[in-house]
Write a structure and sequence with these properties.
globular; three-stranded antiparallel β-sheet; 20% helix; alpha+beta; 4 helices
Length: 280
């Protein structure tokens, strides 16, 4: 953890500690995430060191469209880039507003470039390698600190920070979300536990543009609290939440902007249950 001073690990928002859901009453405690990671929190990260948006732009530029996404990107200001993501649904040849988003040109090229096997062009191979290295670096530097850090308070009330001797495992390919203005919600309220995911998983969610209101993800702060609120974030922030047990969903996006984001799940290796059976 020698790069601790370069990473802002102060939460922007944090909620109260959760109470274990009754559905996990008989689940082995050693396979549950640590209490410090069960609460929804928002953190900042260094966009120069972890330039997720830059790589997503490179991927989107490979999409087959009548109108290219962000041509001459290096000459664009941050305001121009933000607006390009906001209005991505208006690009000529983009059918994201006419079909399920996972059939859009952006999802197709994302799946093409980020798949582990199969033919790729040279430029696609280079982007794939860059994305893998970025994700690996982010997980080793940032995610591991969030999952492995422990605050110890002694009898005198003095707090110290330590790290457990463990590794993390993470989702090999983050999920891409493109949520355009729509009269219908994409998806429905759920917890990841309902889809056979292990309770030790923690979700990390990174928006590529500013998100607010109905274009955002709605999440309860702790399991079964039902205090749903839209997450308001900017690029350069990430959300950590226990999506396995905290219900989350989207609503019809009544704004004029599209939300572009990626998300992935991680866990401490020692909390992986090799004999997991979904008990729901």
């Amino acid at each position: 953890m020698d790069n601790m001073d370069t990473i802002n690990t102060t939460p922007v928002k944090s909620q109260v500690s959760p109470i274990l859901p009754s559905r996990l009453t008989n689940y082995p405690e050693k396979y549950l995430p640590h209490l410090s990671t069960q609460t929804m929190q928002i953190f900042k990260f260094d966009v120069n060191k972890y330039p997720f948006r830059n790589v997503i732009i490179e991927i989107f530029q490979q999409a087959i469209l009548e109108e290219n996404f962000l041509p001459s990107y290096n000459n664009k200001s941050n305001i121009d880039v933000e607006e390009a993501f906001n209005k991505i649904h208006l690009l000529k040849g983009n059918n994201v507003k006419e079909t399920r988003t996972n059939n859009s040109p952006f999802h197709k090229i994302y799946m093409q470039i980020t798949r582990q096997h199969g033919a790729k062009s040279q430029s696609e191979k280079e982007i794939f390698e860059k994305y893998n290295q970025l994700l690996d670096r982010f997980c080793k530097d940032v995610v591991s600190e969030m999952l492995l850090r422990r605050k110890i308070v002694n009898d005198d009330g003095v707090a110290t920070t330590t790290f457990v001797a463990d590794e993390i495992v993470y989702q090999q390919r983050p999920t891409l979300r493109v949520n355009p203005p729509s009269e219908k919600a994409m998806g429905h309220p759920h917890i990841d536990y309902e889809y056979h995911h292990q309770p030790s998983e923690i979700n990390f969610w990174i928006p590529m543009n500013k998100i607010t209101g109905s274009m955002s993800l709605h999440v309860e702060s702790v399991p079964d609290k039902n205090d749903f609120q839209p997450i308001e974030m900017n690029y350069g922030e990430y959300l950590m939440f226990w999506g396995n047990q905290c219900k989350h969903y989207t609503v019809p996006n009544t704004t004029e902007n599209t939300r572009v984001s990626i998300d992935f799940r991680c866990m401490e290796r020692s909390r992986y249950n090799p004999n997991y059976v979904n008990l729901k």
